[in-house]
């Protein structure tokens, strides 16, 4: 059975986690799509899959929900044959 690990990041944590500076529009305050895309590319290379982006009036900035398959190298292939 597959096991997953999950990661939830807001824009500040997304910046810190990927070391990509995310600029904001002077007019709207919205994050730069190119910078967000670059951050998502970094996480994708690390095996993270974007599951959902959620934003509401109370949370302010968007929250990004990711999952990644847990790789358990100690597991034997004998379970697959069962």
SSE topology sketch:
Elements: E1 4-10, H1 11-18, H2 33-45, E2 49-54, E3 63-69, H3 78-81
Antiparallel strand pairs: 1-3, 2-3
Mean pLDDT: 80
- Low-pLDDT ranges: 75-82
General form: globular
Largest sheet: 3 strands, antiparallel
User: How many separate structural domains?
Assistant: 1
Number of strands: 3
What does this structure look like?
With 82 residues, this protein is α+β, with helices and mostly antiparallel strands. It has one domain (4-81). It contains three helices and three strands; from the N terminus they run E-H-H-E-E-H. It has helices at 11-18, 33-45, 78-81, and strands at 4-10, 49-54, 63-69. Strands 1-3-2 form a three-stranded antiparallel β-sheet. Strand 2 (49-54) and strand 3 form a beta hairpin.
Record keyword descriptors for this entry.
82 residues, three-stranded antiparallel beta sheet, 3 strands, alpha+beta
Nutshell version of this structure?
The protein is of the alpha+beta class and about 80 residues long.
């Amino acid at each position: 059975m597959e096991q997953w690990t999950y990661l939830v990041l807001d824009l500040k944590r997304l910046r810190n986690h990927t070391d990509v500076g995310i600029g904001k529009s002077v007019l709207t305050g919205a994050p730069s799509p190119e910078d967000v895309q670059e951050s998502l590319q970094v996480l994708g290379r690390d095996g993270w899959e974007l599951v959902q982006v959620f934003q509401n009036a109370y949370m302010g900035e968007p929250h990004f929900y990711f999952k990644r398959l847990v790789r358990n190298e100690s597991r034997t292939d004998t379970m697959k044959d069962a």
